Amino acid sequence: MEALTFYGMEDLRYEQREKPVLQKEDEVIIEVKYAGICGSDLSRYKKIGPLTPGNIFGHECSGVVTETGRKVTNVQAGDRVAVCPQLPCGKCEACQSGYFAACPDLLVIGAKKPGCFASFTKMPAENVLILPDHVSFEEAALIEPSSVVLHGLFQTRMQPGKTVAVFGCGNIGLLACQWAKLFGADKVVAIDIDADKLQLAQELGADEIIQPDKSVSTYAQLMQLTNDAGVDLAMEAAGSVQTSEEVFAAPKKGGEVLFLGIPYSDIMLKRFYFERIVRQELTVRGAWNAVSAPFPGREFTTTLQFLREGKLKTKPMISHYLPLQEGPDIFHKITSGKEKAMKVLFEVGK
């Protein structure tokens, strides 16, 4: 089968690999239809390198079940499915209590186990969700990043009438803008340096946009849009050093900060931003992965529900449809700044 294998930093290869085979009675084999590039994939490719050199990369996908183990009852061959790629150990104290995000051995496929940038992938049956008839494979390939956003929002005090600022309008930020509105936010302010991303954020529900300007600070622009009040919830979705600092200035007194992005450099807080945490009595939260109990969690089932009802829009976020063989080239182009992209989907087997 065709596959994208990850050997080292900036060393992604298109190869032929053996098709996975069932080894456990609770496993399923999935023929991958669409697989998406995650922002974390780009960071690992450019900045970190693989956990297991030579492993099949990728963790966001949808497809069709082709084989099932003897004890599998929740899906059958021929079912159209989405995949929860998180793999908690299931044995530690955190897993036993249903707090899977705290599992010390939590991984996703594509890290130590083969991922989904391939013709076929193998998963535990409990990680597979059947798609409603009119939810497309393309939409389903974005269920996992949507669940990442929901995992964070479910931890906040978000409710109708609140105001929200989203720092960074990549895929996670765009989904954050949408979910904030679906949660009933009165005003969502999207912040990004890219005008195209801001335009898409508006199309997907953002009420106001801020494009940082050297002459006027993001903080000053946000205060102007909120009548000097700030917002109830500020979400950091860019994973940048700058926004990881600036996000602390956005909330009003008693407000919240939610970190969804991961910067790969040290964060040094200026006194102004640190004092906002103290003087505004902010609640600061981090959100890790996308799973909860009962596994895989309400993050995935809620995303499926809103896709089925047509309320969550993921197709407008897709900028590229590519065959797997173009994988090494598109990773290089995006991480080197030679090509702009939102969500890249690999059309596997086409």
UniProtKB/TrEMBL annotation:
Q: Which PROSITE patterns does this chain map to? A: ADH_ZINC
Cofactors, names only: Zn(2+)
Among SMART domains, the record links this protein to: PKS_ER (SM00829)
Q: Which residues form the Enoyl reductase (ER) domain?
A: 8-346
Q: Which InterPro entries match?
A: ADH-like_C (IPR013149), ADH-like_N (IPR013154), ADH_Zn_CS (IPR002328), ER (IPR020843), GroES-like_sf (IPR011032), NAD(P)-bd_dom_sf (IPR036291), Zn_alcohol_dh (IPR050129)
Q: Which domain of life is it from?
A: Bacteria
| Pfam family for this entry, one | ADH_N
Q: What is this protein called?
A: Galactitol-1-phosphate 5-dehydrogenase
Native species of this protein?
A: Oceanobacillus locisalsi
